[in-house]
Amino acid sequence: MKTLQQGADEATAAARDARTKSRRKQLLAAAARLMEERGSQEVSMQSVADAAGVSVGLIYRYFGNKQDLVQAVIVGVLEEFSNRVGAAVTEVEDPVRQIAAAFKGYCEVIDENRDGTILAYRDTKTLDAAGRSAVKELELTTGKLLSKAVLDAADAGLIRPVDYRIFAFQLLMTAHSWALKHWYFSRHFSHEDFIAHHTALALSGVLRPETRSQYSDLLGDLA
Amino acid sequence: MKTLQQGADEATAAARDARTKSRRKQLLAAAARLMEERGSQEVSMQSVADAAGVSVGLIYRYFGNKQDLVQAVIVGVLEEFSNRVGAAVTEVEDPVRQIAAAFKGYCEVIDENRDGTILAYRDTKTLDAAGRSAVKELELTTGKLLSKAVLDAADAGLIRPVDYRIFAFQLLMTAHSWALKHWYFSRHFSHEDFIAHHTALALSGVLRPETRSQYSDLLGDLA
Amino acid sequence: MKTLQQGADEATAAARDARTKSRRKQLLAAAARLMEERGSQEVSMQSVADAAGVSVGLIYRYFGNKQDLVQAVIVGVLEEFSNRVGAAVTEVEDPVRQIAAAFKGYCEVIDENRDGTILAYRDTKTLDAAGRSAVKELELTTGKLLSKAVLDAADAGLIRPVDYRIFAFQLLMTAHSWALKHWYFSRHFSHEDFIAHHTALALSGVLRPETRSQYSDLLGDLA
Amino acid sequence: MKTLQQGADEATAAARDARTKSRRKQLLAAAARLMEERGSQEVSMQSVADAAGVSVGLIYRYFGNKQDLVQAVIVGVLEEFSNRVGAAVTEVEDPVRQIAAAFKGYCEVIDENRDGTILAYRDTKTLDAAGRSAVKELELTTGKLLSKAVLDAADAGLIRPVDYRIFAFQLLMTAHSWALKHWYFSRHFSHEDFIAHHTALALSGVLRPETRSQYSDLLGDLA
DNA sequence: CATGAATGAGTGTTCATTCAT
DNA sequence: GATGAATGAACACTCATTCAT
């Protein structure tokens, strides 16, 4: 049985924990906003503090040093990517349509956080070995969501015998390219068109002739 | 008619010009080496001077400031890319094989300068508007070499009606991905395999059914 | 006559007082350990709190600021010195042997707290005027224990007419030097040898020729 | 034979070298003044720069970091000590009078740089292992000047068989004590008296009975 | 043309101290 | 009494840039 004091201690400990978590989030959000805008190197700890409305010293209670903060921002971005793609995949049954859904989902997350994507590309190099590993791990996790769908489609005999890693990572890179080459693509295509074109192009490369007709809605002009 | 003095002046002017150019190259080479290795932010002007065996002050005679130097390095990298890809394209006749040749050429240049590729991705953002424009322009130039081949193939009725910009930029990005995701691809594929797989995948997506057989050597397992 | 309440108040007041004192001791002990190890400048208030198992804020209830804490640590060290030397002196009768006993006692206390000795030397300067005075006062107190023995020996006609302050402080400094120059002395002498040599040297300088033979046990080779 | 250019190069190189040396001295002097006054920890690099009339950055061209600067200051102090004591010793013949001269010389240097002495005591601990070694080495060097005289005196049969290291280091510590306990000694003694008293006390401890009369001028009241 | 000493604003980081709980 | 989150001034150190020589 708990004494009153223990109950109170637990309550305050829980409250403190909650505050700690929200502080972290607040700092992370401020840092993410600035770093996505300018790149981590151009963001000083002081500017993060200012943006978050706290003092510099406080950041160091939540993140050991700047590199830790940068890593947390990047990991945060990638985690959200992974979560949302996971959700997108599970909403469909047909493996080929799963591929399309995952790709679409990924493209959409990327679009909503283009700056985060670019940040991950630019600043992963500044992390230490552990940080880089963590980032790669997350990317692999996301990649596996796609690989799974590709393997399922292959097992079902719906697609040609393509190397699933080549194909899956190609899709990932394509999604990234919307952020990385936005200056070019956005000049010529809406994001929907970009997704449609690339979905068609990718599937057109792997679908078996006899199954193409089932997916003519995805193939567009390439049907 | 030229006086002797004028002749002498011209001669020295020319000599000076030559010396200026070689100094620039020397500085650029030193800067490129260091920046590709560590990223431009991690390279100090002093370290460039040391690597080039000159004084810091001298760099400022050839490049207005650090950003100028970074820009010159990146532009240098991209120019070499462009030149070498141009050479690769013109060596074949068949438009489809031109596409394959250009892609292969690009991949090879990228492979030989993976660090330069990454540098261009990481540090273009630090340039001013003019610098970024210059870089984009160069990338477009390279892209056009591919686009041209794609359009020719389409005109010849060899491929399906794919958007040539989507397809061409896709090939560029794929080549880049060898550098950008080298940690992943090199784990599973030799560079030759990487090229072969991606060539097959890309062409498989656009070749018309009736022409596929002509290019079965390029399509590999996807033939 | 005391009311029950008053009695209770006194009891709790006494209890509080006791708790206060033990808290002070606990903090002081933690601080002393750390500061003797690393020097006061290298010890943060947070690290003292951690070592004592309390919060930072609590330290400020017992010591106004860091300087107060440092001062209390140093004073504590010196007080212990004084107490222990006092005990050593009173255990002998013969004034000359008192000198030797006091010196030996002091050397032993120093040896047992070499770090404390060094701390007092290093960090007294960081104290304010009041702190420095307090420290000097304590040192004088200790010095007087020796001076007294010296004066007694002089009164008894056992030693030459040496300036007692010069002689007494010399002994103090010699004892300190075991801590201050430990890197040197410990390389060549055990602590017992150190004491023996210095006792002999010091007494040899002041003993009258006619009394030397009584103390040949203390004079060693110098007898 | 030297070309004109080579001659010019050498001239400028020499001039630069001279300027470099004087800059170092200037910075060292400024740093020494401040650090002797307040202790190295209380002196910021900025304050050294200000005192020397230069910018902070410049200090780092001459001293790798703050610790290097502190070490250079302490070493500078000790080197001067050593030099000046060396000069004092060589001016006399009689070994016993050499001891007295060296001690007197040392006391005088200490008196002229009491703050430097204290600095060496306080801040040697903040140096790294290499720095501490360098400092100890210098102290040993100075110690040897005294040891030599002591050994000579022993060889000449002028003094009792005292351990020369104990005796020599005792003299060093005594000289130091003028700086370390200046608050006490200066209250009671002029520096001359301090030297006279301690010379007498030290020699009285080691002189053989039959030689005392030769040095009655040094023994004072203890004669 | 070439040097490199000199500048000084700016960075990441620490830590004594306060105060709401 | 006791906590520890929060503050912010201070620090050591870096580096792009300038300019007298």
Keywords:
homotetramer, 223 residues, mainly alpha, Arc Repressor Mutant, subunit A, Tetracycline Repressor, domain 2, 2 domains, 11 helices, elongated, disordered N terminus, DNA-binding
Largest interface: A-B, 42 and 40 residues
Return the structural class of chain A.
mainly alpha
Q: What's the number of domains of chain A? A: 2
CA-atom Rg of chain A in angstroms: 22 Å
CATH fold-level topology of the largest domain in chain A: Tetracycline Repressor, domain 2
Largest sheet of chain A: none
- Count of helices of chain A? 11
Q: What is the CATH first-level class name of the largest domain in chain A?
A: Mainly Alpha
* Proportion of beta-strand residues of chain A: under 5%
Terminal CA distance of chain A reads 70 Å
Instruction: Average the pLDDT over all residues of chain A and give the rounded result.
Output: 89
Helix content of chain A: over 70%
Low-confidence stretches of chain A: 1-7
- Name the CATH homologous superfamily of the largest domain in chain A: Tetracycline Repressor, domain 2
What does this structure look like?
The structure is a homotetramer of 223-residue chains. By secondary structure, chain A is mainly α. Chain A folds into 2 domains: 1-64, Orthogonal Bundle (Arc Repressor Mutant, subunit A); 67-222, Tetracycline Repressor, domain 2 (Orthogonal Bundle). Chain A has 11 helices and no strands. Chain A has helices spanning 4-38, 45-52, 56-62, 66-89, 95-112, 114-123, 129-155, 164-180, 182-188, 191-206, 216-219. In chain A, helix 1 packs across helix 2 (45-52), helix 5 runs antiparallel to helix 10 (191-206) and helix 6 (114-123) crosses helix 8. The radius of gyration of chain A is 22 Å and the shape is elongated. Chain A starts with a helix and ends with a helix. Chain A binds a DNA duplex (21 and 21 nucleotides) through helix 1 and helix 3.
